[in-house]
Amino acid sequence: MQDLTQGSITRHIVSMAVFIGLGLVFQTLYFLVDLYFVSRLGSAAIAGVSAAGVTSFLVMGFSQLIGVGAMALTAQAVGRKDKAAADLVSSQSLSLSIAFAVVALVFGYTFGLSAVAKVGADAATGEAARAYLGAFLPSLAIMFPTVALGTALRAAGVVRPTMFLQTGSILLNAILAPVLIMGYGTGVPLGVAGAGWASTIAAGAGLLGMIYLFPRVQSFIRVHVRELKPNFGQWLKIIGIGVPAAAEFLLMFLIFGVVYWVIRGFGPHAQAGFGVGMRIMQSIFLPAMAIAFAAAPIAGQNFGARHYDRVRETFRRTAMICCSVMFALTLFAHVAPEVLVRPFISGDQAAMDVAIVYLKIASWNFVASGLIFTCSSMFQGLGDTRPSFVASASRLFTFAIPAIYLSTQMHLALETFWWLSVASVFLQAVFVFFLMQGMLKRKLGSADAVAAPA
């Protein structure tokens, strides 16, 4: 266990962010490796995999029901040095994750395959989305217990082992992807389905590694078999904190779904270009996301230990570092987007042009996104994610509804949707910042703070 209630806050942020960031990089590479090899199969395959990949936001959303609540409760228990509470939360979050994994598989195969097939711009895109998701679904189910164990470690300040496991998983995925997609060495190409199976096998290996390492890399938290029996009171407590955060991811799923829907009239090249541009943008966000994610366990442990001045300082330092990084990334994405796009779109100039323009325009909201990430992580650490959800929900009114309306208009440029998205993200950032200030005043303003050096 790492005690985050003592020592330099900046050093804690940076040291945790390095390993969280590496873990996020390798997690994102699951999709980029698939996309790289799938791009050799044409625009319909790219658009299909990108459309089906949006379901990961849906599953990530539901995984937040477990991960965010468990992280907040565990980090606060660790800050209080309450081992029994930390053990109970971790055990119950794992049993809850298993239940969600089963539900994800049942609903995914019952309804998900037909749903993603309908999103495609044409029949070929829809069939590619269906084939990919059919093989990719088990990896999404595996995400639930992996998140439960990983967030328990993060709450205890342990992030390095998770990074190493994710590194091994992505290497396995990178080895399997060309073999299963293109049939290298086997002579049996599985196409887009091979991409899904490569991710599933790698994710399964990663979960087994996590189970093996969990009790060996820290000694404070223990998952007890007797405590895996469902405790519905504890489940509700975990879910109660996680619901708003989960709803945020579901809103992201909805918004990306709206984008795919409103641009379908521009053809598979537009969907493919947006899909690649979106994945690249997510990769660009990783450094800032890693910095922001480090704030949650730091704020959580210090809030549990009643070191309120350190909670405030965590927000200030994280926001400053995160937004500075995003400013630098804005310049890079705006100046040289073709360097980022070219490896993932081979021989399709129309799709490449869409992706390049998308990144150039979307880069204007990077700094605002950095502030949003910081506030979201702080809300998690403080155990109340409702304000973050409210801010995210504002995009339904500032982006989704206007985008649907604009899609009915004649002679509308594709770039109009990208500029609308930039404006909506900026408004969200302003809104969430004021909500963050309000929460800090409510939770910390009247408390007898225990000052500690930053």
What does this 3D model show about the protein?
- This protein has 454 residues and is mostly helical.
- The chain has one domain.
- 81% of the residues lie in helices and 0% in strands.
- The C terminus is likely disordered.
Nutshell version of this structure?
The protein has 15 helices and no strands. The protein is mainly α and 454 residues long. It has one domain.
Layout: helices, strands, pairs:
Blueprint: H1 9-38, H2 43-53, H3 55-80, H4 83-119, H5 123-155, H6 160-182, H7 192-217, H8 232-262, H9 268-304, H10 308-335, H11 337-341, H12 349-362, H13 366-381, H14 386-406, H15 415-444
Features:
454 residues, mainly alpha, 15 helices, globular, disordered C terminus
β-strand amount:
under 5%
- Give me the oligomer status: single chain
Flag low-confidence runs. Answer: 447-454
| Average pLDDT figure | 83
Sequence of secondary-structure elements:
HHHHHHHHHHHHHHH
Structural class determined from secondary elements: mainly alpha
